[in-house]
Amino acid sequence: MFSNMIIGRYMPGDSWIHRLDARTKLVLSTAFIFVVFFANNVIGYALAGAFTLLAITMTGLGVGVFLRGLRPLVLLMFITTLLQLFFVQTGDVLVHWAFIKITTDGVINSVIVFVRFMLIIMFSTILTLTTQPLAVADGMESLLKPFKKFGLPVSELALMLSIALRFVPTLMDEAQSIMNAQRARGVRFNEGSLMARIKSFVPLLIPLFVNAIKRAIELGDAMEARGYRGGDQRTKYRVLTWHTRDTIAIIAFVIFTVALIATRWMM
Amino acid sequence: MVMAINFDQVGFTYQPNTPFATPGLHDVSFEIPEGKFTAVIGHTGSGKSTMVQHLDGLVLPTTGKVTMGDQVVTAETKLKELNEMRAHIGLVFQFPEAQLFEQTVLKDVMFGPKNFGASEEDAQAAAEAALKKVAISPDLYERSPFELSGGQMRRVAIAGVIAMEPDLLILDEPTAGLDPQGQRELMTLFTDLQKERHITVVLITHQMEYVAQYADHVVVFEHGTVVKSGSPTTIFADEEWLHEKQLDVPAAKQFADALAEKGIQLHNVLDIDQLADQLAARLNGEVDHV
Amino acid sequence: MTPIISLSHVTYAYPNSDAPALRDLSLTINKGEWVAIIGHNGSGKSTFAKLLNYLLAPDEGEITVNDVIATEENMWTIRDMVGMVFQNPDNQFVGATVADDVAFGMENRGVPRDEMISRVDAALEEVQMMPFADREPARLSGGQKQRVAIASVLALQPKILILDEATAMLDPTGRREMIALVHELKARMGNDLTVISITHDIDEAASADRVMVINDGELVETGLPAEIFANADQLRRFGLAVPFAEQLKEQLRLRGIDVPNEYLTTEGLVTWLWQSISTK
Fold first, then answer.
1. CB contact (8 A) between residue B262 and residue C141
2. Are A159 and A237 in contact (CB under 8 A)?
3. CB distance B272–C252 less than 8 Å?
């Protein structure tokens, strides 16, 4: 059941995008979410689309992987688009049947929302597919460093995040084997009524929880035994290094942003 | 229920049709004789555990078919048939104590039988019998399984499988992590059970001592397929082959081989009794020198 | 011989338990020694390991590590000297990659980054895990994870290495490789490394210079492996395994053969049998 989740999974590679600093990718994918709103006509969206497609092509992973990544979100996208279709009531009326009224503005708006949604998801998927989760954690720590001054335990949070990430595959395996053991004892997951389904997860969740606590206690011992006591005297083995390609990526993105703003006057 | 098992050209791929697709098994064909003790050996990652999941319908073969009694399992087999099949199969996973979850020991052992349709009374009777078999005393029945010692938790979990009164009992390294006495007790329990109830037992193990001592039949896995099967004597006869496969030889056989190097030839030594018998005969001068 | 660890009258009971896990334990381990602590599950061996680096504090008695008394104030000094490898390879892996894990202990001690890099490399080289430096733990075998755990300890340059049932969850190949690795380390570092292995693996215990048997929280036996292993009845009484050669001797004795009383290794017994049979 855990095997079909592709979204958010790191896919190893050696492309230019893979090698970009995590901070660059974090900042740019966040910036993209806002920048995309500058597009207000066909040319703007075409430009944003082309830029996204270029970035995707450069990952060397193939567009197919990204499209598959969209699959779990299809329902969400569909609903949002429909809402636009029904709630925007200005413009010429195209269909009027009982209480349903679809207008030209509604159609245009829903198309825009759909395209924007897709672009944002595709662009953030570039971050998760080409960056090791650990590097994302490191990047976040580095970007959040200024907040240390305000008492935010940035290093501790980053260590917690990196340990949590490191345990994801371990706990997934464990969940799978507990599930197998309970199925062998006659539990039927994903069968029957909603109540029955919820109940069937109790024999999975309790052992998973108990074992996770046991692991946490052992890990705590292991960390203490190796001298962990938190605080600021810790040094860091892993450092992020800024390369020319990161500067290039940022410049390219700035040019894209300026161009996107310019498209607003093109129609 | 008849429980002879046959694998016919079974192949299995993990996460098929994704970029993460990895082959698990290929061209697996072998038989597990009914009512016998079969040992499955092979390197870590050789495909043994994937094969075991096929035995209980936890995964379906991507290609080929598995015949278990009169049930045929293929890629198209329906969930309902699998559930019926599972009622007759007991599976003890590695570190089975991880499956405990109920409030009391007794309830946890009753869980399996009840899922497969036993009444409250029948389930309790089966649970009590199983707990007795694994030597868990009645004063622990109402305790939380999480309060028990590691060894006791392991035995309660095994009782939870035995209580289902399976015709096929599959054991995936059931003694891993136990101390020597705990290991001995469990192995005795399983062999007694097999003899008493004439059930089919499949044991996955790294310990060649167990294979030599208990198994009627051995299946060897490597790189996701079966590379050899036969009686323990046949399997352990070709030592060079075993070394090539990075598999161990039982201690008694190793000892006999060391003697052979010194010129003392013994015949078909697999366990310590055979070794001691032949050596005693030699030392008493009953056999001529070779 | 200089003692590096000494316990005098140490007692420890876990909170909420009626009986102490360890009772009145007194013993000395010398610098450079390899000591195996054996005992059945729940005998108190792991409690003993945790007391040695102050993961647990004794209720009574005193523990000294390299002339430092184990107390709250000294615990970080003690943890600098005592490195520990635990049973479950998964639950002691802190780093998201092999190299990160080895670096973790040094990060905690504020080791400068340049020095860390060279020490990570050296430690990984020592356990032959250098090609795996950037791998994630999920992609390693149990044996490989434990070798990384050893590297993580070695990078901290400890005086004492404690293996707390570190081979119990490994397959036979992993177990053998790990014992061989400790042999190598011992051979290279000699008296600079003291090894304490808590185990019920007979082969692991047989490699030690001295064996201590703990049963129900008490130290019941100390001696050379040969002395401890020769007493099969006693080993069984303590819930332990009996070496194969000793099992065979017992079986031969049952068949009326007059076998030597002293402990024999497999090679020793083969030689004895060969001589006895040849002279027949």
1. no
2. no
3. no
Q: Of C262, C148, C240, C198, whose CA–CA distance to C47 is shortest?
A: C198
What totals of helices (H) and strands (E) does chain C contain, helices first? 11, 10
Output DSSP code: residue A153: -
DSSP state letter for B43? -
What residues of chain C, 109 to 148, have a C-beta less than 8 Å from chain A?
Answer: 109-113, 116-117, 120, 136-138
Q: How far apart are CA C244 and CA C241, in angstroms?
A: 9
Amino acid at A207: P
| Segment holding B2, helix H or strand E | none
Q: Which amino acid is at A108?
A: I
Contact list, B254 vs chain C (CB under 8 Å): 266
Alpha-carbon gap: A123 to the closest alpha carbon of chain B (Å): 20
Q: Which residues pair with C8 in a beta bridge?
A: C62
ipTM of the complex, rounded to two decimals: 0.90
Compute the distance between CA of residue A183 and CA of residue A203 in angstroms, rounded to an integer: 10
Q: What is the model's pTM?
A: 0.85
Name all chains with 3 or more CB-CB pairs below 8 Å to chain A: B, C
Strand partners, B200: B168
Calpha distance B160→A82 (Å, rounded): 51
pLDDT in single tens digits along all 267 residues of chain A: 444 444 457 888 889 999 999 999 999 999 999 999 999 888 999 999 999 999 999 999 888 888 877 777 788 888 888 888 888 878 888 888 877 788 888 888 888 888 888 899 889 889 988 988 878 888 988 898 888 888 888 888 888 888 888 888 889 889 999 999 999 999 988 778 888 888 889 999 999 999 999 999 999 999 999 999 877 788 889 888 899 999 999 999 999 999 999 998 877
Helix, strand or coil for residue C91? helix
Residue C185, judged by CB atoms within 10 A of its CB (0-12, 13-18, 19+), counts as middle
Rounded CA separation C132/C121 (Å):
11
Chain B positions touching C201 (Cβ under 8 A) are none
SS3 C99: helix
Amino acid at A28: L
Closest of A267, A259, A265 to residue A48, by C-alpha:
A259
Q: Is C50 on the interface with A (CB under 8 A)?
A: yes
